């Protein structure tokens, strides 16, 4: 299977910046979409940003012009640069990726999630 491991969360003051990283590992054959989602206490998980294999991107309206998603296909890694952070950005951030991996019985699809990393924006 494919495993996703996030890093880079933490505590930051309003207006500050953080960069999240998420590396995928396993017998990856191809990676399609990679993305970041977040879930605040008492709220549903929501899409933050997503990037295709061709580097087309989409963002939630609440983070446009503040967050930037990018990917390094050679490293199977997706990044989220977060600038001008606000208290309402506080949440657990999860990375997600889908594609195909090599198994003993050929290529199989995967849709994998990381374990989540906490981002807290507070003074």
Tell me about this structure.
The chain has 123 residues and is mainly beta. The chain has strands spanning 2-7, 10-12, 18-26, 28-39, 46-51, 57-59, 67-72, 77-82, 91-103, 106-113, 117-121. Strands 2, 4, 5, 6, 9, 10 and 11 form a seven-stranded mixed sheet that branches. Strands 1-3-8-7 form a four-stranded antiparallel sheet, with no helix packed on it. The mean pLDDT is 96.
Topology:
Layout: E1 2-7, E2 10-12, E3 18-26, E4 28-39, E5 46-51, E6 57-59, E7 67-72, E8 77-82, E9 91-103, E10 106-113, E11 117-121
Parallel strand pairs: 2-11
Antiparallel strand pairs: 1-3, 3-8, 4-5, 4-9, 5-6, 7-8, 9-10, 9-11
State the main characteristics.
elongated; single chain; 11 strands; 7-stranded mixed β-sheet; mainly beta; 4-stranded antiparallel β-sheet
Short description, anyone?
This protein has strands at residues 2-7, 10-12, 18-26, 28-39, 46-51, 57-59, 67-72, 77-82, 91-103, 106-113, 117-121.
Distance between the termini: 40 Å
Number of helices, where a helix is a run of at least 4 consecutive DSSP H or I residues: 0
Computed Rg? 15 Å
Summarize the main sheet: 7 strands, mixed
Low-pLDDT parts are none
Mean pLDDT: 96
The counted number of beta strands is 11
What percent of residues are in strands? over 45%
* Structural category: mainly beta
Taken from the alpha-carbon principal axes, the silhouette is elongated
Q: Share of helix among residues?
A: under 10%
Q: Which sequence of SSEs, written as H and E, runs from N to C?
A: EEEEEEEEEEE
């Amino acid at each position: 299977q494919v495993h996703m491991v996030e890093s880079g969360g933490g505590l930051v003051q309003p207006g500050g910046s953080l960069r999240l990283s998420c590396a995928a590992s396993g017998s990856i054959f191809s990676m399609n979409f990679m993305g970041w989602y977040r879930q605040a206490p008492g709220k549903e998980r929501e899409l933050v940003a997503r990037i295709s294999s061709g580097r087309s991107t989409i963002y939630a309206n609440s983070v446009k012009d503040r967050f930037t998603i990018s990917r390094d296909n050679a490293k199977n890694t997706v990044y989220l640069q977060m600038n001008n952070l606000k208290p309402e950005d506080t949440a657990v951030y999860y990375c997600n990726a889908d594609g195909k991996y090599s198994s003993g019985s050929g290529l199989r699809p995967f849709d994998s999630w990381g374990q989540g990393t906490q981002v807290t924006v507070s003074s």
